[in-house]
Amino acid sequence: MSTPMNRLTARSMAFVLAGGRGSRLKELTDTRVKPAVYFGGKARIIDFALSNALNSGIRKMSIATQYKAHSLIRHCQRGWNFFRAERNEYLDILPASQRVNENKWYVGTADAVTQNIDIVDSYDIDYVLILAGDHIYKMDYEVMLRQHVDTEADVTVGCLTVPRMEATAFGVMHVDETDRITQFLEKPADPPAIPGDPDHALASMGIYVFKWTFLRELLLRDAEDPKSTHDFGGDIIPYIVENGKAQAHRFDSSCVRHKPEAPSYWRDVGTVDAFWKANIDLTDFDPELDLWDRNWPIWTYSETAPPAKFIHDQDDRRGSAVSSLVSGGCVISGTEIRNSLLFTQVHTNSYASLQKVVALPYVNVARSARLTNCVIDRGVQIPEGLVVGEDPEEDAKWFRVTDGGVTLITQPMLDRRAEAK
C-alpha cells in the first residue's frame, strides 16, 4: 500500500473546471453555477470532486470559475478554508479575469488552464488532474495516477462503463485490448463497443491526468492554433490520440464503495429530473451513495444550526419523517414527511404533507400545503394550502413541470402566481 511519502497524489494538483452554467437545471442555475447547486442535504455538487482530491492525498487545488460564481466562491471560502500555505497546501479560486487579454474570458476548458499556467507552475508539481466540478461520485485518484505512470501514457482519461447505446450522449473511447484509446468520438450515433464486451462502451467522465510539463507544452501549442476551440474533449484529447499515447482508465477500478459488492456510483445531475432522483435515492434503505462513510467523507461548509426538531403529536397533526433525510435547523411542526430530503433550516407547519420532496435551505412550508414530487429552491415561501404534484396541468400554469413529472418551484414563480390570483 502506498505511504503518504510515495503517493503520486503528493506530487499532483487538481484543476477543477467549475465555470459552466448547467442550463439544463433551468431555474436552479439562475443565480448559481451548476457546481454550486446544493446536493445531499448539506453539500454542494463541487464538494464531491474536491473531497475526492483531498481524500486521495492531493493538497494543491485550483478552481476555475466563470458563470455566476459568487455562490461557489463564497462556499469555497467558508467550507474549504483549512488549507495552510506553510504546509505547502493551496486552494486557489481562479475567476475568468481577463489575465491574458482585456477582451478574453475563458473560451474553452483547455483555455481555462492555459490562462493560469503561471499559477500552476508555482505549485511545483509533477502531475495535474483535470476534473469536472459537476458530477456526484467517489473516486481514489491515486489509482488513476498510478495507472498513468505505469502505462507511460501522455494522457489518461477517466471512463465509465455504460450500456453501448446509452453512450450516444457522451464522448466515447474506442480502445484496443490494452485500453489504449484509438479514437475519441463525441456523442456517436453508433458507439464502439469495448473489446470482448459488445454490449458496453467506455464513456468519458471529463477527468484527465497529464504530466504537467507535457500538458504545459501542449496548451501553449493549442493556444496558437486559430482553428482550435481550446477544449480538452474537442481538441487536446483527440490530438494526443492521433499523435501520442492516450490511455483509458476504468472508473470501476478506482471507485470508492461502502461495501465490496456495491455498484460503482457516478451521476450527472445536470437535469431537474436527474437532480431530484439522485437526492431522493438517498432516502432508500441502503442507498448506492454512502454519505455516512467516515473513511471517505464528503467535506463541505457546515452551517451552525441546532438539531432538527419534530413537534405536535395528534392524529392529523403529527411532526414525523419516514424514510427521509432531515438536516440541522429544520422544524417539522405537525407535518408528515415521507421519502423526502430537507436541507438546513427548512421549516414546515401544521397539516402540511411532503412526499418525495427535495427542499433546499431556508424553505418555509405554510399550513395545509400538500407537495409531491417537487424540488423547492432555496428560501422559497410555500403559501398556505398550496397543492403541487396532483394536477400536472394546473402545476404547469405556474411552475416548471419536467418530462419526468417533477415540479420545480422557485420564489419568482410563486410571486407571479400570487399576482395573477
Automatic annotation (TrEMBL):
<feature type="binding site">
    <location>
        <position position="204"/>
    </location>
    <ligand>
        <name>alpha-D-glucose 1-phosphate</name>
    </ligand>
</feature>
<keyword id="KW-0808">Transferase</keyword>
<comment type="function">
    <text>Involved in the biosynthesis of ADP-glucose, a building block required for the elongation reactions to produce glycogen. Catalyzes the reaction between ATP and alpha-D-glucose 1-phosphate (G1P) to produce pyrophosphate and ADP-Glc.</text>
</comment>
<keyword id="KW-0547">Nucleotide-binding</keyword>
<feature type="site" description="Could play a key role in the communication between the regulatory and the substrate sites">
    <location>
        <position position="105"/>
    </location>
</feature>
<feature type="binding site">
    <location>
        <begin position="186"/>
        <end position="187"/>
    </location>
    <ligand>
        <name>alpha-D-glucose 1-phosphate</name>
    </ligand>
</feature>
<dbReference type="InterPro" id="IPR056818">
    <property type="entry name" value="GlmU/GlgC-like_hexapep"/>
</dbReference>
<protein>
    <recommendedName>
        <fullName>Glucose-1-phosphate adenylyltransferase</fullName>
        <ecNumber>2.7.7.27</ecNumber>
    </recommendedName>
</protein>
<dbReference type="GO" id="GO:0005524">
    <property type="term" value="F:ATP binding"/>
</dbReference>
<keyword id="KW-0321">Glycogen metabolism</keyword>
<feature type="domain" description="Nucleotidyl transferase">
    <location>
        <begin position="14"/>
        <end position="283"/>
    </location>
</feature>
<dbReference type="InterPro" id="IPR005835">
    <property type="entry name" value="NTP_transferase_dom"/>
</dbReference>
<feature type="site" description="Could play a key role in the communication between the regulatory and the substrate sites">
    <location>
        <position position="66"/>
    </location>
</feature>
<dbReference type="GO" id="GO:0005978">
    <property type="term" value="P:glycogen biosynthetic process"/>
</dbReference>
<keyword id="KW-0119">Carbohydrate metabolism</keyword>
<dbReference type="InterPro" id="IPR011831">
    <property type="entry name" value="ADP-Glc_PPase"/>
</dbReference>
<comment type="pathway">
    <text>Glycan biosynthesis; glycogen biosynthesis.</text>
</comment>
<dbReference type="InterPro" id="IPR029044">
    <property type="entry name" value="Nucleotide-diphossugar_trans"/>
</dbReference>
<keyword id="KW-0548">Nucleotidyltransferase</keyword>
<comment type="similarity">
    <text>Belongs to the bacterial/plant glucose-1-phosphate adenylyltransferase family.</text>
</comment>
<feature type="domain" description="Glucose-1-phosphate adenylyltransferase/Bifunctional protein GlmU-like C-terminal hexapeptide">
    <location>
        <begin position="306"/>
        <end position="409"/>
    </location>
</feature>
<dbReference type="InterPro" id="IPR011004">
    <property type="entry name" value="Trimer_LpxA-like_sf"/>
</dbReference>
<dbReference type="GO" id="GO:0008878">
    <property type="term" value="F:glucose-1-phosphate adenylyltransferase activity"/>
</dbReference>
<keyword id="KW-0067">ATP-binding</keyword>
<keyword id="KW-0320">Glycogen biosynthesis</keyword>
<dbReference type="Pfam" id="PF24894">
    <property type="entry name" value="Hexapep_GlmU"/>
</dbReference>
<dbReference type="InterPro" id="IPR005836">
    <property type="entry name" value="ADP_Glu_pyroP_CS"/>
</dbReference>
<dbReference type="Pfam" id="PF00483">
    <property type="entry name" value="NTP_transferase"/>
</dbReference>
<dbReference type="InterPro" id="IPR023049">
    <property type="entry name" value="GlgC_bac"/>
</dbReference>
<comment type="subunit">
    <text>Homotetramer.</text>
</comment>
<feature type="binding site">
    <location>
        <position position="106"/>
    </location>
    <ligand>
        <name>alpha-D-glucose 1-phosphate</name>
    </ligand>
</feature>
<feature type="binding site">
    <location>
        <position position="171"/>
    </location>
    <ligand>
        <name>alpha-D-glucose 1-phosphate</name>
    </ligand>
</feature>
